[in-house]
Amino acid sequence: MDKVFSRRAALVAGAGVTAGLALPVTAHAAPPGSGTRFVLDADTLDGGEQVTSLTLDTSRLGPIDPASLTPGTFGVHAKATSPIDTGGQNVGYDLDRAVTAARLDRRGNIVLELSHAEGQPGGGTLGYVGSKGRNVRLDLVYTITQHSPFRLRHGKPVTLTRFTQGKLANPEVDAFTHHASRSGMKYRLYSPGSHHGRRPLIVWLHGGGEGASLPDGYYDNETTLRANRGALGFATEEAQEIFGGAYVVAPQSTSAWMDDGPRFAPLIHEIIRDVLRTRPVDPNRVYVAGCSNGGYMSLKMTTVYPAAFAASVPICGVVTARRAGDPPLIPDPELTAISTPTWLVTSLDDTTVDPRANTVHAHELIPGSLATLYDHVVWDGHQFPGHWSWIYVAHNDPSANGTRLWQWMAKQRR
């Protein structure tokens, strides 16, 4: 349901060092130690993860003259392909990436800054496979070509002839550790820094596009943190300060939550119990939030486990029937019976999930609930699809009576 038109990471490229002439050599796979390794540096933007720079392991060469580096010193090519069958849909790309700057980091490594922006093609790590309804991490092959020498500070010109692609590094994503429950459901967990006492736990439930595709053997425990900033927002310094240091858990569905909410509910609850058992979590401060499919599942969790959560934040969630003639996913009596403090969020221009038939309807029935209705989804001057109202939650934008959403959540106790 939640589409991120983006892309993923694999390997390859090629590194030796020669002095003097510039030798533009197309990179190729090389055994460890035989090439200049480089890392794909990524950031999760509101519209999905993008590779924003490449860091070359050049500190071993000695001090480099930064004045000898220009955007034209190196060229970068990126090729992205799907790891699963797409039924003929082209979800990848094959293009040159524009180098906007070449600089040195504090370790003396060369960093190639790449042109990137919301909606800009050719930098994403995910691709949306329409026939599967899933975002997948694309296999990325980055090729570096050196067009002119750079100089060491003592004056020696250097040309690197082979490059070897390394890992995809995204510090925000990498801060979430990998786990699986006894039932086999995978999840990622962010643990706060040193804090005294028991901490809150925020449960983030992803949208439909971030579930697994088991028929393709695809269950990566990655797209939940790379497709958007839903879970990452709660791990930012700002959020952590507001919550006083919170654990953030992001389970990954084996399909889509809406496929069988009653079956998934106890599997999610098992993960919550795992975290409560193994981490210093305050059971009276467990919060659940989710978008689209996850918005539905956030509501469903409060109907199945009415005493488990201190607050719920369903974003552009679904409560109506999926198809004509089907029963509603969450019947009106269940909505009316919800006792968990609830704050719903949507955008009125959502063309994926009818905001009035779902969010507005749920708000009218859930006792004491709050609701924030946006006209459009616009952040930092970029307009996103109306369905992507989770962007506002990831930035703590919703407010009511002078109180922001995260502050409201943090005050709630079971």
On the 0 to 100 scale, the average pLDDT is 92
- Count every helix, treating DSSP H or I runs of 4 or more residues as helices: 10
How much helix, percentage-wise, in residues? 10-25%
- Give, in spatial order, the strands making up the sheet with the most strands: 14-15-17-16-18-19
Instruction: Calculate the terminal CA-CA distance, rounded to whole Å.
Output: 31 Å
Stretches with pLDDT under 50, minimum 5 residues? 1-34
* Structural class assignment: alpha+beta
- Percentage of residues in DSSP E strands: 25-35%
Overall form: elongated
Query: What is the rounded Rg?
Result: 23 Å
Main sheet makeup: 6 strands, mixed
Give a topology summary.
Elements: E1 17-19, E2 36-45, E3 48-56, E4 74-81, E5 93-97, E6 99-104, E7 110-114, E8 126-129, E9 134-137, E10 139-146, E11 150-151, E12 157-160, E13 163-169, H1 171-174, E14 176-180, E15 186-190, E16 199-205, H2 223-226, H3 230-233, H4 237-243, E17 247-251, H5 261-278, E18 281-291, H6 293-304, E19 311-315, H7 332-336, E20 343-347, H8 356-365, E21 370-374, E22 377-379, E23 382-384, H9 390-394, E24 399-400, E25 403-404, H10 405-411
Parallel strand pairs: 2-13, 16-17, 16-18, 18-19, 20-21
Antiparallel strand pairs: 1-12, 2-3, 3-7, 4-5, 4-10, 6-7, 8-9, 11-12, 14-15, 15-17, 22-23, 24-25
